[in-house]
């Protein structure tokens, strides 16, 4: 629900952009888990504690640029209807292999890196848009890929 309705869940400021802040007061105690070897622990901690984990850049730089590959494509046929699982901790590994294009895990070599509206990108990223996992990688790539340095 939080991924689909961040505003309704009270995660947005007055501009409608989700705030990039820790979601639990114990986040400072979890700092070591931000880069945990266990990918599930790491993903859960980074989602719960983006500020503590250093994912609130506000500078237009993403911590996770998207690679260009000649074979960037979806393997599964239902990727368009399953996009809400792209960032899901339990399905992320499967989505990376089966729906890499739809999820924004790669971009084709002919992809034109651009922003839909660079003025919006700067405003949104003041609240950490480029690294905010409340938005999917694909949405961040499509809306502000160039500004967020997700592509070149």
Automatic annotation (TrEMBL):
- Protein name (Swiss-Prot/TrEMBL): ShKT domain-containing protein
Organism source for this protein? Ditylenchus dipsaci
Kindly state which keywords UniProt assigns to this record, in alphabetical order: Disulfide bond
Spell out the disulfide connections.
72-106
Lineage, please? Eukaryota, Metazoa, Ecdysozoa, Nematoda, Chromadorea
Signal peptide residues are: none
* All residue ranges annotated as the ShKT domain in the record: 20-56, 72-106
PROSITE patterns, per this entry?
A: SHKT
Tell me the InterPro entries matching this sequence.
Answer: ShKT_dom
């Amino acid at each position: 629900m939080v991924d689909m309705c961040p505003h309704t869940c009270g995660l947005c400021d007055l501009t409608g952009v989700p705030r990039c802040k820790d979601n639990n007061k114990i986040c400072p105690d979890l700092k070591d888990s931000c880069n945990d070897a266990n990918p599930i622990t790491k993903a859960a901690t980074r989602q719960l504690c983006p500020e503590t984990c250093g994912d609130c850049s506000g500078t237009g730089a993403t911590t996770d640029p998207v690679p260009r590959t000649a074979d960037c494509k979806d393997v599964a046929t239902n990727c368009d209807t399953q996009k809400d699982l792209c960032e899901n901790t339990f399905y992320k590994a499967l989505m990376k292999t089966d729906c890499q294009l739809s999820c924004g895990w790669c971009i084709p070599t002919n992809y034109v890196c651009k922003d839909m509206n660079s003025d919006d990108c700067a405003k949104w990223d003041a609240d950490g848009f480029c690294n905010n996992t409340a938005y999917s990688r694909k949405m961040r790539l499509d809306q502000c890929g160039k500004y967020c340095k997700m592509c070149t």
